[in-house]
Design brief:
The protein is α+β, with helices and mostly antiparallel strands. The protein has one domain. Helices cover about 40% and strands about 15% of the residues. The chain contains one helix and four strands. β3 and β4 form a beta hairpin. The chain is rod-shaped, with a radius of gyration of 25 Å.
Length: about 140
């Protein structure tokens, strides 16, 4: 009888441990999924910063005018064509969005470059003023 009580007690502890483990996994897995979009957004920000610096260098060489197309940056200002495309899972790639016709004296809040992939309703934008950041899609002001 005492042996059965110990066995039941041990089974109850095992079930409680399994339930607690399951609850822990339920909370940890979503947190891991949140980090992937942040890492991807950071890569996109870095990529647009490189492209923006290339646009600025081009403008310094062309009377303050940003390039007519992103292609004008290759190969003199951007030696790697991969920078012109999004980095997505699988083989799918989209070209970085460029807003031509702007200059170094264009209003700083105008977007010059946009990463074509959204991250949780936000998009990475490089503005004429030199800052690159994540913005909510409805706050994107395209000329």
């Amino acid at each position: 009888m005492e042996h059965e009580t110990k066995l039941q007690s041990n089974l109850a502890r095992a079930w409680i441990a399994l339930i607690l483990l399951g609850l822990g996994v339920m909370f940890v897995i979503p947190m891991l999924n949140l980090k992937a979009p942040r890492a991807e957004a950071t890569i996109a920000i870095n990529q647009l910063q490189i492209l923006f610096r290339a646009c600025r260098t081009y403008a310094a060489d062309h009377e303050g005018n940003f390039p007519p197309t992103l292609g004008a940056l290759y190969p003199d200002y951007v030696p790697n064509l991969d920078l012109f495309f999004s980095k997505e899972e699988g083989n799918r790639k989209r070209i970085v969005i460029y807003h031509p016709g702007l200059t170094e004296i264009s209003p700083g809040g105008l977007p010059l470059l946009e990463y074509p992939v959204r991250y949780r309703g936000k998009r990475v934008i490089a503005h004429c003023g030199g800052y690159v950041k994540l913005v909510v899609d409805e706050n994107v002001s395209i000329p």
